[in-house]
């Protein structure tokens, strides 16, 4: 029976069978780790694409504003290409090293330090990703509820408390999805969440043509304006809402053939009770920058690295891929990373060209400078919330796999353990989200450390150590060695710059 099964298995899987046979104990391990995959090519592509796509897309416009268009595009394509090369190294190492589990590759390469190094890197990266998704739920979901209830400000009700909402979403939606035994079933949610992100991108592109530059500077304690003053001329329309009930933070003269100047806008808005301050350097503000270097530029590469990390999910998805082969999985990775590259570039470019230097580190929040209640943007917020909520179980999967491999390597699958590990992970990330006031600098640190380990250092180190058939001076080994050195330099350099930025801002805040 076993001989028939092995004969029908993917030929590449037989690489993992030493001398063509196994003892009973090793046979059980083999069947557990190298079971025939059941997930289709398309579903695997959806899973990996959704693992790549996350909250990072909301910060790419800010990254472009702090690097310039040309430098950002160069960095974006570079990180994408390096990520593909890293996946290539990882897949080849998994074949030659005889394992489809990240930690086991680390153990075979460097013993227990490699095993725990891989575990720590995966856990840090994924805890950071999960925290970012839950932070979006915490801060965006109350705003969506408030907007749909047409509340001018947060009334303090429990359903507007982000801490309560993130717990309810975690227990009611994320935890049940996390209890699915096989990752392939989540492909349906992956497809839906990717559709949500495509909708987000579509609205960002559409709003570029609706919002003028420069933006007026509006000052009011509430930050929300309704223009009911009868003295306001009818041709001053709320831009660009199509609903009378929609509210927007500034007005423009929509008379055909009329171009509103700063002085006219200033006079009209003063008459309406709105404080307007024209930008003296408006021409410069609305010109795109192509190369920018400032204190925030140091965060750009870690943000991009964080945005492209999918490597902890590659091996679990590979293990469940139907008709599994290295070439087939590489094609899954190529399509996923190429698709996300296009979405990242469009979102960053149109978000930046909408707000230029005024863009904030979360793109959706920047639109509050212009709109208070706008239906398309509210739907985008809702779509992003759905997308990140459905992504959390996919990110949680490799964390649980790592914990199981480390703490319960010989135990058979058990539903109680399966549930408890997921519940503990979610409880920990919820605690971080509730009690940590800001996560931006943590993401910078994770992008420079854990993301660098997963993209550059670990795949290259595993490859150099485990792939024996290629000589050390072969082009493949030299390329992997250069890749490893670049990763170490990048990690040390980025962490140093980020630490210096923390010290600088800490000393500045003390003086104030």
Any overview of this molecule?
The protein is mainly α and 512 residues long. The chain has two domains: 43-209 and 288-511, Amino acid/polyamine transporter I, CATH 1.20.1740; 217-278, no CATH class. It has helices at residues 2-8, 24-33, 41-52, 60-65, 69-97, 102-110, 112-148, 162-178, 187-208, 262-271, 282-285, 300-308, 311-319, 326-355, 363-366, 375-407, 415-435, 440-448, 450-466, 475-511; strands at residues 217-219, 236-238, 247-248, 251-253, 275-277, 371-373. The strands form three sheets. The chain has a two-stranded antiparallel sheet with strand order 1-5. It has a two-stranded antiparallel sheet with strand order 2-4. It is globular and about 65 Å long. The N and C termini lie far apart (75 Å). Pfam families: Aa_trans. One of its GO terms (molecular function) is L-amino acid transmembrane transporter activity. InterPro entries: AA_transpt_TM. It comes from Chelydra serpentina (Snapping turtle). Keywords: Membrane, Transmembrane, Transmembrane helix.
Write the layout of secondary structure elements.
Layout: H1 2-8, H2 24-33, H3 41-52, H4 60-65, H5 69-97, H6 102-110, H7 112-148, H8 162-178, H9 187-208, E1 217-219, E2 236-238, E3 247-248, E4 251-253, H10 262-271, E5 275-277, H11 282-285, H12 300-308, H13 311-319, H14 326-355, H15 363-366, E6 371-373, H16 375-407, H17 415-435, H18 440-448, H19 450-466, H20 475-511
Report the count of strand segments. 6
CATH class descriptor of the largest domain: Mainly Alpha
Mean pLDDT: 76
Shape: globular
Instruction: Give the distance, in angstroms, between the N- and C-terminal Cα atoms.
Output: 75 Å
């Amino acid at each position: 029976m076993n001989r028939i099964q092995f004969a029908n298995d993917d030929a590449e899987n037989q690489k993992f069978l030493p001398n063509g046979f196994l003892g009973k104990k090793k046979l059980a391990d083999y069947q557990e780790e190298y079971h025939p995959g059941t997930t289709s090519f398309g579903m695997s592509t959806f899973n990996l694409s959704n693992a790549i796509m996350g909250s990072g897309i909301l910060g790419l416009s800010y990254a472009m504003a702090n690097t310039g268009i040309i430098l950002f595009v160069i960095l974006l394509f570079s990180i994408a290409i390096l990520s593909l090369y890293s996946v290539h190294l990882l897949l080849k190492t998994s074949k030659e090293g005889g394992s489809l589990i990240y930690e086991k590759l680390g153990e075979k390469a460097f013993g227990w330090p490699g095993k725990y190094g891989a575990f720590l890197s995966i856990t840090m990266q994924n805890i950071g990703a999960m925290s970012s998704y839950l932070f979006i739920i915490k801060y965006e979901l109350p705003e969506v509820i408030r907007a749909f209830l047409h509340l001018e400000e947060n009334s303090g009700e429990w359903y507007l408390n982000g801490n309560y909402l993130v717990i309810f979403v975690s227990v009611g939606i994320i935890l049940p999805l996390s209890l699915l035994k096989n990752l392939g079933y989540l492909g349906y949610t992956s497809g839906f969440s990717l559709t949500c992100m495509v909708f987000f991108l579509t609205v960002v592109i559409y709003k570029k043509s609706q919002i003028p530059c420069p933006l007026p500077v509006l000052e009011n304690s509430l930050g929300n304006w309704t223009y009911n003053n009868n003295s306001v001329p009818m041709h001053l329309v709320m831009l660009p809402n199509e609903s009378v009930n929609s509210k927007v933070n500034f007005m423009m003269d929509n008379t055909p053939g009329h171009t509103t100047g700063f002085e006219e806008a200033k006079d009209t808005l003063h008459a309406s009770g709105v404080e307007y301050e024209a930008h003296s350097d408006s021409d410069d503000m609305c010109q795109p920058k192509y190369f920018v270097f400032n204190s925030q530029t140091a965060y750009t590469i870690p943000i991009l690295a964080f945005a492209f990390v999918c490597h902890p999910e590659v091996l679990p998805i590979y293990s469940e891929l139907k008709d599994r082969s290295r070439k087939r999985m590489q094609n899954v990775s190529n399509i996923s990373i190429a698709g996300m590259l296009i979405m990242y570039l469009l979102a960053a470019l149109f978000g930046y060209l909408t707000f230029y230097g005024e863009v904030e580190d979360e793109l959706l929040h920047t639109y509050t400078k212009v709109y208070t209640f706008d239906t398309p943007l509210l739907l985008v917020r809702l779509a992003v919330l759905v997308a990140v909520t459905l992504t959390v179980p996919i990110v949680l999967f490799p964390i649980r796999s790592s914990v199981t491999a480390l703490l319960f390597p010989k135990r058979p699958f058990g539903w109680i353990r399966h549930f408890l590990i997921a519940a503990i992970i979610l409880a920990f990330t919820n605690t971080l989200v509730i009690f940590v006031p800001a996560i931006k600098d943590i993401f910078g640190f994770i992008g420079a450390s854990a993301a660098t380990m997963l993209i550059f250092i670990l795949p290259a180190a595993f490859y150099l150590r485990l792939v024996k058939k290629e000589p050390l001076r072969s082009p493949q080994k030299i390329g992997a060695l250069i890749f490893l050195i670049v990763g170490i330099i990048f990690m040390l350099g980025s962490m140093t710059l980020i630490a210096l930025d923390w010290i600088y801002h800490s000393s500045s805040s003390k003086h104030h």
